[in-house]
Amino acid sequence: MTAALVPAAPQDIAELRQLYFEVYGHGYPVALGSDPAEMHRLITDPHCHWLTARRADTGELAGSAVVQTDRGNRVGKLVGLAVHPRHRQHGLAGRLTAAVTADALATGALDSIHTTVRMVTQAPQRVVARNGYRPLGLLPNAAEVSGCETLALFACYADGVLERRAPVAAVPRALVPLLEAAGDSIGIPYAAVRPLGPGEPETAAAHHTKAGHHTKSAHRTTDRTPIEVITAPGFVRRRFGEVFPDPAGAYVPLRTPNTVLTPPDGAFEIYADLDPAAGSCALVAVHPCLSAATGALDSLTAALGRAGADYVEALVPLSDTAGLHAFLSAGFVPGAAYPAMRRIGDRFHDHVVLSRTDRQIDFRTTAVSTPLQPYLSAYLTAWTSTYLPRHEVDR
């Protein structure tokens, strides 16, 4: 079959919705495949890259792929890759991935593009890997598609980005297996990074949080700060824009917060992208700074659980030793690295994805390709050290 790749247009929306229904049924968790208003916004956004594949002979819609962009943070995300079941086995997924990625990087406005892929089969992993995406780790229980699923994180980079990474001298010891996996899988040199035990300072600066609070222990936190959950998307977006006016701000790119969590005294505001239908939540930003909220992370996850999210995800700079210790002590487990995720000046800074899930993790039906095997081992090591008693680990 011969197919032409052409940019999506507003008149394609009805066909695109049908395509995503044919591929995913009613379980597709992304608005760009189901919400006409969001689809129209993205198609008409000059900074969004949306390609469709159409049969050359009939014009029938056969596939779709999108790269959304956060130009302030120079980060993109490949989403919505779908090929109609009748048109598989013709290489369309690879063609769409290669073309839409090349279009996005050719603008010079992005330093990296990441994507998450389902792991019900190895095919999606192979598609992105063959088109320049590098495996970065696993996000266990991150999606509710056909049941609770684990996703794999991949990323590709513009030329020269990885060579300009800012060095990190030391990290919490619990991150060492993940960094070793990154070294094995994509050749990132982390061998010289020194592991830190709980409360062991890297430097005076790393020993304290931004607000001067010392992270003393990696034992599970016991703070029970009352947390109010405000789910008012319009208000939250306006408030977020006021608090974080810089488009290159220190928040998670390509996440639009719809919820804010705060104690009654307003000591901090945590902005989150909460999806109760998927049972998941991504922490987007903290005001005034992460250190103001680190003592309340247990209370935060409990509040999110009551709001319907039993999977919570955070993106933390690898250099933020105190912040990483705080999340680790609250039961978050490192699952993925994102080298060179954020540009500051002429250097690129590595980040880590940590998550906490209250659902049982079952890898028995997860298809883990060879490049991702080191990450699975690293996650199991980190989860074991977090949730099993020491005598059980040593037995």
TrEMBL record:
It comes from the Bacteria. Pfam families: Acetyltransf_1 (PF00583). Keywords: Transferase. Residues 199-221 are annotated as: Disordered. SUPFAM superfamilies: Acyl-CoA N-acyltransferases (Nat) (SSF55729). Residues 207-219 have a biased composition (Basic residues). InterPro entries: Acyl_CoA_acyltransferase, GNAT_dom. Residues 3-159 form the N-acetyltransferase domain. GO terms for molecular function: acyltransferase activity, transferring groups other than amino-acyl groups. This is GNAT family N-acetyltransferase. It comes from Streptomyces gilvosporeus.
